[in-house]
Amino acid sequence: MLTAALEGLIDRYGLQGETLGEVAGGAVLKHSRDRDLTRESVLSTRLAAETPAYDVQQACGTGLETTILVANKIALGQIDSGIACGADTTSDAPIALNEDLRETLLEANRERSTVGKLKQLTKVRPGHIVPAIPRNEEPRTGLSMGEHCAIMATEWDIGRKEQDELAVKSHKNLAAAYDRGFFEDLMTPYIGLDRDQNLRPDSNLEKLAKLKPVFGGPEGTMTAANSTPLSDGASTVLLASEEWAKERGLPILAYISEAQTAAVDHVHKREGLLMAPAYAMPRMLDRAGLKLQDFDYYEIHEAFAAQVLCTLKAWEDKEFCAEKLGKSKPLGPIDRKKLNVNGGSLAAAHPFAATGGRIVASLAKQLNEDGKGRGVISICAAAGQGVVAILEAPGGAK
Amino acid sequence: MSKTLDSSPSILALYARAALPMIPGASLLPFVPGGGGEIPDGLDLELTGVIAKAEAVAAYAKVCGFTLRDTLPVTYPHMLAFPLHMAVMSDGSFPFGAVGLVHVENSIVQKRPIGIDEEMTVRVRPTKLQPHPKGKTFSLETEVLVAGEVVWESTSMMLRRGGSNGDAPKQEKSFESLPADAPASAEWKLPGDLGRRYAGVSGDRNPIHMHSLTAKPLGFPGAIAHGMWTKARALAQIESKLPDAFEVEVRFRKPILLPARVEFASSNEGEDILFAVRNAKKGTPHLDGRVQPLKATNSKTAPKSGRKKTT
Questions:
Q1: Quick check: is A350 catalytic?
Q2: Do B307 and A11 touch (CB under 8 A)?
Q3: Domain boundaries of chain B, sorted by first residue
Q4: Are B239 and B67 in contact (CB under 8 A)?
Q5: If pLDDT is split at 50, 70 and 90, which confidence band does B303 have?
Q6: A174 and A199 Cβ atoms separated by less than 8 Å
Q7: What is the pLDDT of residues B233-282, one digit of tens each?
Q8: B68–A191: do the CB atoms touch at under 8 Å?
Q9: What angle do the packed helices A62-75 and A355-370 form, to 10 degrees?
Q10: Which secondary-structure segment (H or E) carries B125?
Q11: In CATH, which of 3.40.190.10, 3.40.50.150, 3.10.129.10, 3.40.50.300 is domain B1-173?
């Protein structure tokens, strides 16, 4: 799927035979045989085989982090062009051997004599047939991301209705973006699909209100509709220096001006697992000399509606901003009309490593359509991490 | 005259009919192929409304080593045409049974990639018999049309061994082979069950590919790899080098006895790509091939579903 997405980009921008500076990509759910996934994928495309590539993995932050990596190398003058990308196929997740069986087989392999090998193999038990299935679970807390987010939702007192409202808006915005052809030149069809399968254009509050909570117990507020489904997808972003783009007559859609990654201690300090973007944002804004209100677009990855709402509430919260962020004044509220205007992950679903590229590409296109303006991206990731970045239109801020 | 089918023929039933001529005397029955003689007219077949199944394409791509894309692997339409090939060759008026025929050559012209969800018409037509030094040959000509336009063509030349035509000209197309000493770029370890795996995705359950027990009675020392698998695997090896519009011809040489270690070699200069599959140890040639890009006039008339989009 990553190869198909890369080919789509290559076709669109006439990159056949080009040697790019690098391709940085990743996948979160990856089998050990998928070593050098990105490089292998590049070798299946019509890019010059001399294009180097490497894998990156930072959970849901992977896609945006690869964009930052490539952009930084371009900014430093180390390369003049590159592709940031990501792919995940949660429907085809790798299933590992039973851990006990794996150890037994390795022991048998270490034995030199046939008798020794056979002796080890007698330790294989019927129960060993049960494979190790990857789970969406934090290794240090044993809780799933959803369960962590449910704790955050309770702490920040996020109601069911506002979560459902965000979900409905996500579907409506994405459907509207498809209807006006916004994704025409962004989407590469793949085996019969040319739009997100998760999209429910007729989603409404009444229907969503009927759903049972899936996280946070019977009293929980998080449902299948206001939590993002994991899906299959791939995304790619072409990044280059101005000169490189101009030499090839390629349009400059947007500039990446700032980025920041942060992490929280969700284990010992019991910070909200998905709250790291709340910390990354003020650090980036300070460096850029901007206020949270200085943006025309806010692209906040909707891992869960509650995650978005917790983050926004935290930036408005005097106590949190003072104690945790060291700010005398809260970052303040944002204009909700500017939030995820072309739909978010709740509607598009979340193929882990592909989400960042999807957001960067759509925001860049939106900024280019406007000609002027500035947008900010915020993505939370497993293991208590968060990535944020600023994109600016070629015409600068409004 | 051609017959139009409304559904793909059942391959298993066709195999039963294709195998009947092996029973002594059965060929005298009117519904059983055989009797020798010429290939009659009127055996052309056409199947309309063909749409590839994504799951089937995915399984095929996996067995052959292709990347699963939004367009069909270049050899995939052969899978859609295969039941028609079998139906032609197991028709009661066909001069001999399909079992035992040797696939000696295959050429495919892809005028543009076919989208995975495009509706196709598949047409198959047998040619007349031609004398060959080792017997007689005929070809199965296949066309795939999308919206009335031919987008894919294939010619499979089959050899019926027997009869002496020692002075007959060789029918195989002549194209330059990759020099035998061209260095190999890859080695493939082919498992013993490769024939069964490919049979599973192609429907081609010819007993010579399935198992040594079923191959031996037909004169092979063991199960052999499908020629069209070998061709597909070779093209998968160079898929990033293939243009959108091209012709690929292969000659099938010595069969690959499974399991096997074979090597792949290809030329990397000029417009054409010459390639070969050889035995890894002895260098025995298994397949010779050539890819030639089609002239731009052909590819320009190719509106692609989806993939080509400009900003």
A1: yes
A2: yes
A3: 1-173, 174-298
A4: yes
A5: very low
A6: yes
A7: 999 999 999 999 999 999 999 999 999 999 999 997 788 999 999 999 99
A8: yes
A9: 60
A10: strand B120-126
A11: 3.10.129.10
